[in-house]
Amino acid sequence: MTVADLSRIRAYHPEAIAEAAARRARRPLLGDRGRLLIVAADHPARGALGVGGEPFAMARRGDLLARLCLALSRPGVDGVLASADILEDLLLLGALDGKVVMGSMNRGGLAGAVFELDDRFTGYRPEDLGRLGFDAGKLLLRVDHDDPGSLNTLHSAARAVDAMAARGLPVFVEPFLTRRHGPDGTGPPRNDLGAEAVITSIAIASGLGGTSAYTWLKVPVTENPDDMARVMETSTLPAVLLGGDVGDDQDAAYEKWRGALRLPTVRGLVVGRALLYPPDGDVAAAVDTAAGLL
Question: Which pLDDT tens digit goes with each residue over 137-181?
Fold first, then answer.
């Protein structure tokens, strides 16, 4: 099916999306091996389209879908994290049967905007995920101690955790302590990956809402990977590691993930650009290597 075919279905038969969701074969979140490898593709909905030195790499939808379908076809890949438009394309392509489908919930903090840290819930709502029979949600939680708006982000995130738990749906919380760099405090926000900052962000995320029974953590590997053991002692919540744009040194990224994956609360990986756009262009090899780490 081509991009033109997908557009034609959307134009003439929009109900086909809900029909595809209803007939999708489902699976448990965790299989027998108790590990997760999720491919992430929710970056475009936040206007973050760049990979490496190519600022609009993820803007070619046909190419992105081909990479996602290839990644999802590889052994050991459990599912995908994306916004509604991408998940709907994958539903129509029949690529989500037997896969974990994770909807991205807050994409309002657009990359490069003055309101970037205002991570409002402009994506999936808990009721959407339940209605479509999807398996989990994910939310981004960036906290800037110098930004009063972070309190709104915390409040909205806590209520999302409550609403997901009420439906028995896991929610993966991706927490960071963040601050704007620049002489006047208005520069681009940067996430602090120092051990103390990641520890603090995990503690904040773990305490959100009226229950943490359905909360998972989605955490970065710290600047010094040797700090991960004490960082992950902060919470008993199950966790996955996030990938991010690892640049040209793919092997170094794999080695960092390998060490952290041995920790008792770490259950897997959620990785996007590093697997979908590897430096050598070999998506299958990148995905297979990541799967081998689990």
Answer: 999 999 999 888 899 999 999 999 999 999 999 999 999 999 987
Contact 102, 137 (CB under 8 A): yes
- What residues does 141 pair with on adjacent strands? 175
What do you get for the CA distance between the two ends of the chain, in Å? 32
Closest CA to 41 of 188, 241, 243, 285: 243
What is the distance of C-alpha 79 from the center of its chain? 11
Tokens of 151: 């309190």
Contacts of 294 (CB under 8 A, 6+ apart): 33, 35, 37, 76, 261, 268, 269
- Max Cα separation, the chain? 54
- Which has the minimum average pLDDT: 9-18, 166-175, 253-262? 253-262
Angle of helix 84-92 relative to helix 15-23, nearest 10 degrees? 70
- As to burial, measured by CB atoms within 10 angstroms (0-12 exposed, 13-18 middle, 19+ buried), residue 279 is middle
Cα dist. 39→71, 109, 137 in Å?
7, 21, 14
Assigned token pair, 217? 């953590």
Q: Which residues of 63-79 are buried (b: 16+ CB within 10 A; e: fewer)?
A: ebbebbbbbbebeebbb
**pLDDT value of residue 181:** 78
The three-class DSSP label of residue 189 is strand
pTM over 0.90: yes
Instruction: Report yes or no: 150 and 115 within 8 Å, Cβ to Cβ.
Output: no
Distance in angstroms (rounded) separating the CA atoms of residues 16 and 253: 39
> Which tokens is 216 given?
């998972």
Query: What sign results for the dihedral spanned by CA atoms 132, 39, 210, 106?
Result: negative
Here the tokens at position 267 are: 């259950």
